[in-house]
Write a structure and sequence with these properties.
Layout (H helix, E strand, L loop, with lengths): L6 E5 L2 E9 L5 E9 L7 H16 L28 H4 L1
Antiparallel strand pairs: 1-2, 2-3
Length: about 90
């Protein structure tokens, strides 16, 4: 892998993100982050996917600010025609 390269692997219960970092001496250091599904969430798979996408935005340093003219958002929404009675998604 090269700098600014991120490898994402789907696991049974989430995702693994891998990349190379560098020491002060310029030596490569393998890094890894694990994003696991939260079984307490109404839709654990969707929540893990959203968390993984936030990790990708953070890795590439494109999170932005709420004050930026344009920014990328990651949001879980109901499908078209779904009527909700007050779930976790609507509370966010």
């Amino acid at each position: 892998m090269t700098p600014w390269e991120l490898k994402i692997r789907k696991a049974e219960n989430g995702y693994t993100l891998s990349w190379l970092d560098e020491t002060d001496d310029g030596l490569p250091i393998p890094r890894q982050a694990v994003v696991q599904e939260d079984e307490q969430h109404e839709n654990p798979e969707a929540q893990a996917a959203a968390d993984m996408l936030w990790q990708v935005l953070e890795f590439f340093n494109i999170l932005g600010s709420k004050h930026d003219k344009h920014r990328v958002r990651v949001k879980i929404e109901h499908g078209h025609g779904y009527e909700c009675t007050g779930c976790e998604v609507c509370k966010e």
